[in-house]
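Appendix B, example 12.
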Amino acid sequence: MNLVAAGFLLMICFIASVTAAGLAHTWEERPAGDGSFAGVLFSTDGSTVYAGGNQILVRSWDGEKRWGGLSGTYATMSADGSRVISAVDNSLRVFDDNGQEIWTRNEGAQFRAVAISGDGSLVIGADNNGYIHSYKINGERWGRNKTDLIKKIAISPSKSLVVAISDMGLKFFSPDMEQIWEDNRTGSLDSFIAFSSDSSTVITSGDTMVSSFTHNGDLNWRKDVTQSAIIDMACSDDCSSIVLGSQDGNVWNLNKQGDILWKYPAGSWINGVGVSRDGSVIAAGALDGTIYILDTEGDLLTKTKTDTLIQQRSVAVSRDGKKIVVADLRTLYGFDLIGEPEVTPRETIATTFSVTSSPPITRETTLPKTVPSTIATSLPDTTSTPESALTPFLTIIALTGLLFIVMIRNK
């Protein structure tokens, strides 16, 4: 009886360890041919996943809806999942959530950057002649402006502000492309743009620097944060959690005031980061293929590995923090975060950080090459349907039941 009781207690401990947080490998997708995915997104409700790169893929989380095949080098999806835009050469095309082309606009030069509002009603494209164009939901031209060459565009949730990073610096536009404000103090160092959900705050980052602006362009703060180039950035809804991945192998978390809350040393370049709406779940993908899931305090919840190197800017977390999407060189992975947290402490640092006196140095990171646009007649089947991550747990429950039977018979 003592032996049976000891075995029962051991089994209970084992069950408790199984319920710790983990990543359930839910599905995989591979592009047709030798392509690769990069630049992944979730729709606001977490039901739809977008991946760009050499070719676009749009799929529902359960896989019921899947379409794609055209070039995704300059492409993105609206936050509600209703529209996808793709620019190839001098054509900008808009598709509905079933992959049907709604409208196309041709301009006089090749497009180099695109953006779409959360509801798909405002589309922005910048071309190689220095023009930035805006279009309404039906494809009607809204505005146009001649400016510096643009490399990145983002539209605020309120749709009242368009932020663009040019070769000369940061620019703010109205939806009709009237320039409101510009800042050339950092030149072309910025690479990433994020907004607070109320559109009152604009966060930009690039090289080793992070900046915060009001919607009017007033500078809240600017800080030199990392020792190496920032590779990716993600923000919670209120920008109280600004997550950075950098070439020095660290995941950084800053608050809305720009104070460094913590860093997590992964030891390998952090190629992609994502964060839930409230900052409670943070995902980071390292160059070596390791995916780290961290909580709001920077503690490690769980980790896993992909088959190859994780693509730059190719990690996303659903708003509720329960789903994670990651793209490596060959595959797009969908994971479900399951179980209860069992944290591993991380390295902590002071909430202040000394600003380096030397000026930032521009560093380049490799982006996917442009490929010809091809509409695929069909997508490859999902490569696998992984087994449920709960199978070991059910086995343990069965063994526990057998122990109870043994105890009853020995009375």
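DSSP finds two helices and 32 strands in the chain. The radius of gyration is 23 Å.
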